[in-house]
Amino acid sequence: MAKVLKIAEIGNPVLRSPALPIQNIQTPAVQTLIDNLLKTVKKGNGLGIAAPQVSERLQLFIVASRPNLRYLNAPTMEPMAMINPQILAYSDDTEKGWEGCLSVPGMRGLVARSREIKISYSDRYGEQHTQVFTDFVARIIQHEYDHINGKVFLDRVESTLDMMSETEYHARIACA
Ligand code: ZN
């Protein structure tokens, strides 16, 4: 049975260390970690989660967009694991949007991201893909990709005026 894992929060050095490539995707340890991340992101009402957020320094993240209590207007997709990902291209066209993070509880920040990205990655079966993603899902991927490079969304907020508590965000932005 999959387990809900403990989330490392901002201040924990694991969030600031670059993650390492996964050599063998098919091992039970990696497959169990993927199942546990899927369960953890669902429990936390997240849209994605990266292995460093559960203190595993591995190049692996889950993208799992769907509407939930923390993100009312998120598009629905089948949750997917991206392993050893590499963003190959970023569009010059960027858009600012509000982000939150399970590792930065209670905060939201306005972050500029490319509207379109091209990424190569392995899926959990070890199959290699190269795909283009746009808008909201491209934003989630860029956020998670930052995690495996030791970055968090706060690093990309241009001004402290672009930060809000989760409560104020829900009162002012999400319901506006
Ligand atoms: Zn995050």
UniProtKB/TrEMBL annotation:
Binds 1 Fe(2+) ion. It catalyses: N-terminal N-formyl-L-methionyl-[peptide] + H2O = N-terminal L-methionyl-[peptide] + formate. Removes the formyl group from the N-terminal Met of newly synthesized proteins. Requires at least a dipeptide for an efficient rate of reaction. N-terminal L-methionine is a prerequisite for activity but the enzyme has broad specificity at other positions. InterPro entries: Peptide_deformylase, Peptide_deformylase_sf. The keyword RNA-binding does not apply. Belongs to the polypeptide deformylase family. One of its GO terms (biological process) is translation. NCBIfam families: pept_deformyl, PRK00150.1-3. Its cofactor is Fe(2+). It is an enzyme of class 3 (hydrolase). The active site is at residue 144. Keywords: Hydrolase, Iron, Metal-binding, Protein biosynthesis. It comes from Phormidesmis priestleyi Ana. The gene is def. GO terms for molecular function: metal ion binding; peptide deformylase activity. Its EC number is 3.5.1.88. This is Peptide deformylase. It comes from the Bacteria. Fe cation binds at residues 101, 143, 147.
